[in-house]
Specification:
heterotrimer; A mainly alpha (212); B mainly alpha (123); C mainly alpha (495); A: 212 residues; mainly alpha; 75% helix; globular; B: 123 residues; Helix Hairpins; 67% helix
């Protein structure tokens, strides 16, 4: 089995190498700047993600949302009856997490709302915000924070932003609306969705952490 | 030549990931292998965007050739999909660990008959 | 470009998909099971607005927009999807609104998949489909279905990794993702990047589709999924990999590879089905064997493509019916083995199985017969012989469930049988009316002879017992790599 796997893998990698060797150096691409400016943005990648290939991005957002739904469904039967062992907590960690949360949120907001101009966008912003929440959870204890952040509200915000994105996409694809305001709105909505999703997934995993 | 070097590194990562996926019996190792392989595929796409001496694909950064923006956009999606698959698979691994007390693929594949549900008890 | 888009039928199709997705998300939010019904109505309404189909439209505009087109295959699936959804909805009507939201999203994803003409769009849609499929297969959180769902997830992730590498190679060589442009730019597979890339694309999609050996997640997953889910998978969502393979063989010169894959999966699935005793697994092995017809038709292309489209839609209807009837019967009786089920099924399950069995065995004048004759007349000689042999084998292995067709007690779950049975009957009638060639006595005689030959083969086969090797996860993953490598070598040698 191992020998066969080694042979097959070597063959496949060799073929990949053969294929790759023919395609470099890559030819130049016609500038996408005109397309980006026609859409009211500067970042060509953001134009592709949120504008030209919005049809892909919609399903990407749904993939993300479905993961969250799947994680919730998959872990619904795993519940501790005894209280969980608390995560170690130090005043230093708690204090610094409280201090850092504000700047992290502001930075996420900045990354989301300037995504059409430079590097950034909704997905990184959501990841930043979600990581900040996780940091806070580490400091304050997952249980305490999840009691403070009410889950049904979060769920509404998350799926609500997906529905708004779908509606925006409909307007964009069918009516032809475009412009800078659209990019900012879409990035902010995606950031909300990604941040809530990251929080829900990580906190579910933390809640069912088992015997550490 | 950076593009070709990136692609070569990507292929090496794919090989490493696939080898782990096939040879290891533990589900967590398999997922790790799968994710390393997927990172290789992502790196491969990124290296396709490379142009010699190119600048980032953002308007107003001056003259000269621009890197291919399309692979960057694709990579964003591919990363989300990898994350999604990994998270969902980990949930099911947690479930199987709790209910079957094993992460060994061979044992999971070869246990015949009814599988009693062991959830409950301490949970 | 956006201004012109408004008047095109592509707008209606896009709006239909968006409506389906929005209703699915609303269902997840707790808006109730009725969202599924609304989506079914919306889907059909949207189809009415673009029913004759539409030529290529690029969503988002050049140079990177997503190509969409509504051909016969897409129209057929759009007509079929709400019907299968209705059957699944009816059977699972007591489940939570979350479940129905997920089902609605899965159907919406399938509706988008059949329209897509873009490599990366297909990648995302297939991935979303298999994520939703895995969640729904494992929905009840029993250990075995969870393991089946996880296997599906692992193998489809491996398939999609292979697919992504192939996509990178093809994009690197041709600089485009649109399958229409690829068809214009790639007359042959001579450049190594194209030969290897196309092979990886085909193998990755085939894993997702569940063809023999490299996609062997399928039997366990279909055996263990809830009844509504397996109806949906067999009748609609599981065919998305086949649709993607059809799109690939339209655009890239990989037709012979796809057709060869079809012959392999046809006979491989058949061999496993001949000696299988578990009803659901038996039906699942037969999906693999029926993939043979579709892939041969799609791979050969030209006139055979139309035959494969017809066969695929007919197959979705009667296979959905078989799984629905078998699954609901097993739910009612509580045992899975075919010998133990004989004479104990409720009436609806018995009738549904009967209609599905006659149809899949190719008994005139049902949809399976029409589809087999139509497709068989369009493919060249060696393939036509293979398909005839496959038909005889199908009849042989389905002879085994003849004792199940005497229903015993109770009404059983009528709703889905009614929906899908009407679909089968209506499609048969439409096929007979639109294809007058199949009405000749010679074709009827040939089809009946195949069924009788199949029954004779069954009498021979049931005396012997062949121990077939059990296929494990590691074997399948290894087979994926071997298949990708061999196919790429073959393409390089030919190109």
């Amino acid at each position: 089995m191992r020998a066969l796997a080694a042979v097959a893998l070597a063959l496949l990698l060799g073929l990949l190498g053969l294929g790759v060797s023919g395609i470099f150096p890559r030819p130049g691409v016609p500038g996408g700047e005109e397309v980006a400016e026609a859409w009211g943005a500067k970042n060509v990648v953001a134009t592709i993600v949120l504008g030209v290939r919005l049809w892909d991005t919609l399903f990407e957002i749904l993939v993300y949302a479905m993961t969250i739904a799947g994680v919730k469904l998959g872990l619904r039967r795993l519940r501790w009856e005894e209280p969980l062992p608390p995560v170690a907590e130090t005043p230093l960690l708690r204090r610094s997490a409280d201090l850092l949360l504000g700047p992290a949120a502001v930075f996420a907001l900045y990354v989301a709302s300037s995504g059409h101009l430079g590097p950034g966008g909704g997905f990184p912003a959501g990841a930043i915000l979600g990581t900040a929440l996780l940091l806070l959870a580490l400091a304050k204890g997952v249980e305490r924070l999840s009691a403070e952040l009410r889950e049904p509200t979060l769920e509404w915000a998350e799926y609500g932003s997906i529905v708004v994105i779908l509606a925006l996409a409909g307007a964009l694809l069918l009516l032809g609306r475009r412009g800078t305001a659209y990019f900012i709105a879409a990035n902010l909505l995606i950031a909300v969705e990604v941040a809530i999703g990251a929080w829900v997934v990580l906190h579910r995993f933390a809640l069912s952490r088992g015997e550490v | 030549m950076e593009g070709l070097a990136g692609a070569a590194l990507a292929i090496a990562l794919v090989g490493l990931g696939l080898w782990t996926l096939i040879v290891r019996r533990n589900l967590i190792w398999k997922l790790l292998g799968l994710n390393v392989g997927a990172s290789g595929a992502v790196l491969f796409l990124v290296s396709l965007a490379h142009r010699p001496g190119a600048r980032p694909p953002i308007a107003g950064l001056g003259p000269g050739p621009s890197a291919d923006p399309l692979p960057h956009a694709l990579v964003l999606t591919a990363i989300v999909i990898d994350f999604a698959t990994l998270a969902l698979a980990l949930v099911y691994v947690i479930f199987l660990t709790e209910s079957r007390r094993t992460q060994d693929v061979r044992r999971l594949e070869r246990e015949e008959g009814e599988w009693p549900e062991r959830l409950g008890g301490s949970r | 470009m956006a201004g012109t888009l408004r008047r095109e039928p592509v707008t209606a199709a896009v709006a239909g998909v968006l409506l389906y997705l929005a209703l699915g998300v609303a269902g997840l939010l707790g808006a109730g099971r009725g969202t599924g019904l609304l989506a079914i109505l919306g889907g059909w309404a949207s189809l009415l607005l673009w029913a004759p189909g539409f030529p290529l439209g690029t969503l988002g505009g050049p140079p990177w927009g997503v190509a969409l087109a509504g051909d016969t295959l897409a129209v057929g699936f759009w007509a079929l999807a709400p019907l299968v959804h209705a059957a699944a909805w009816w059977h699972e009507r007591h489940r939570s609104t979350t479940f129905h939201g997920l089902v609605t999203l899965l159907v919406g994803t399938c509706l988008a998949t059949v329209l897509s003409r873009d490599l990366f769009n297909l990648f995302i849609l297939l991935d979303l489909g298999s994520l939703l499929g895995a969640i729904l297969i494992a929905y009840d959180l029993r250990s075995r279905p969870v393991w089946a769902g996880l296997r599906y997830l692992l193998l489809s992730a491996l398939g999609m990794l292979v697919y992504l590498l192939g996509l990178g190679l093809v994009y690197g060589e041709l600089g485009t993702l649109s399958l229409v442009q690829i068809a214009e730019l790639a007359p042959g597979l001579a450049p190594p990047a194209l030969g290897v890339g196309a092979s990886l694309l085909v193998v990755g999609t085939a894993v997702k589709a569940g063809v023999f050996l490299i996609g062997f997640w399928l039997p366990e997953a279909y055996r263990l999924a809830p009844v509504g889910v397996v109806t949906l998978l067999a009748g609609l969502a599981g065919k998305m990999g086949i649709v993607a393979l059809a799109r690939l063989s339209e655009a890239l010169p990989v037709g012979p590879a796809v057709a060869a894959l079809g012959v392999i999966t046809g006979f491989g699935g058949l061999v496993y089905a001949l000696w299988e005793r578990d009803l659901m697994r038996f039906l699942a092995y037969h999906i693999l064997s029926q993939y043979g017809y579709m892939l041969v038709g799609f791979g050969l292309g030209g006139p055979a493509f139309a035959g494969a489209v017809y066969y695929t839609i007919a197959h979705c209807l009667f296979k959905g019916l078989l799984f629905y009837a078998g699954g609901s019967g097993i739910e009612a009786v509580g045992v899975r083995e075919i010998p133990h089920l004989a004479g104990r099924l409720p009436r609806a399950a018995g009738w549904g199985l009967a209609l599905g069995t006659w149809s899949i065995a190719g008994l005139p004048p049902l949809a399976g017969f029409v589809a087999k004759e139509f497709l068989g007349g369009l493919v060249p000689s060696p393939y036509a012989w293979a398909l005839t042999l496959l038909g005889v084998g199908t009849a042989a292995s389905f002879s085994k469930i003849l004792p199940l067709l005497h229903p015993a007690r109770g009404h059983g779950a009528w709703g889905g049988v009614l929906f899908l049975g009407m679909g089968v009957v209506g499609f048969s009638a439409w096929g007979l009316a639109s294809l007058p060639g199949v009405l000749s006595p010679a074709t009827w005689g040939k089809a009946l002879a195949a069924v009788v030959a199949g029954y004779g083969l069954f009498l021979l086969v049931r005396r012997v017992r062949v121990p077939l090797p059990k296929v494990e996860l590691d074997h399948i993953s290894l087979a994926v790599l071997v298949a990708a490598g061999l196919l790429a070598v073959a393409h390089l040698l030919v190109g």
